[in-house]
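Hi X.,

You mentioned you wanted examples for the new student's onboarding notes, showing what a folding record looks like when two proteins sit in one file. Here is a clean example. The first protein comes first, with its sequence line followed by its structure tokens.
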Amino acid sequence: MENRPFNIRVAVPADIPAIRSLMARSIAELQKGFLTAAEIEASKDVMGLDTQLIEDGAYFAVVEAGTIVGCGGWSRRRTLFGGDHSAGRDSGLLSPETDAAKIRAMYTDPAHVRRGIGKIILAACEAAAKAAGFRRVEMAATLAGVPLYEACGYRKVEAFRSPTRSGVEVPLWRMAKDL
């Protein structure tokens, strides 16, 4: 593996403003070519930071020269995707024996794509979930994220569309991987 100037660490509450800013840039730029302008705007209803992940110590920040350039996490909670503002979240705990851990809120700064940041985050999430006893992981992947996740061994399980307040539905894929 090539030497990269990135460090990965557990995100802390003080990182929230920088993470939210990165997420907004990522949604606005990296979904182009995959979603319509209306779907990108509607994505703001269903994508974003779930601060429960930071509280749980299960959210990572990838840092380069003191700046967060990527983020993502995993969860032992039932919610598959969405931020603090998203409807339908469920903070109930999953059972490692019967449930898949959730990979959540993966974002890369648009100026830092194709540098291995997503793979760094996925590896950290998968290792943490495995250490917690989970044998499987799943996620709700954006269309833009599918190629990365497939390259990392995830398989498409089902396509679905997430409703939003605007009435525009956002296309996503449920993807899964055995650990």
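Then the second protein repeats the pattern, sequence line and then tokens:
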Amino acid sequence: MAEVQLRLRDDEPVEDPAVTVDSFAAQTNANAVRIEPGDDARDLLPVLDRLKLVEVNFPAFTDGRGLSAARILREAGYAGELRAVGDVLVDQIAAMRRCGFDSFAPDVALDPEDARAALERWPQVYQAAADARAPIWKLRHG
């Protein structure tokens, strides 16, 4: 999985803007898609090889459905950029990273140092996840 891109605000234009999951199938040249709450990420599994960017929208920090979408895509082999957009809080980015996000474009800019600290806060983890970090028990017992 790629290194985390601390694009903490989406100020850089995307070459090919993301289209909705529903309209993606009809687009022959689209390579970016945006998953909204309620969309089923599994609808994208047959076309993962066409995608270079998947944006997952978090309209409210309390809506965790996007975390499941990220995990589904990473476990299915998606290797492109997976960007969390919307109401993304600094307290969430470590968990989002574990689910497979590698870039973040929050509605409200995050302090880069706070974001880095959040991503580095826990050097060890207890369970396997999409980020492929080895759980501490596996490190202890080979």
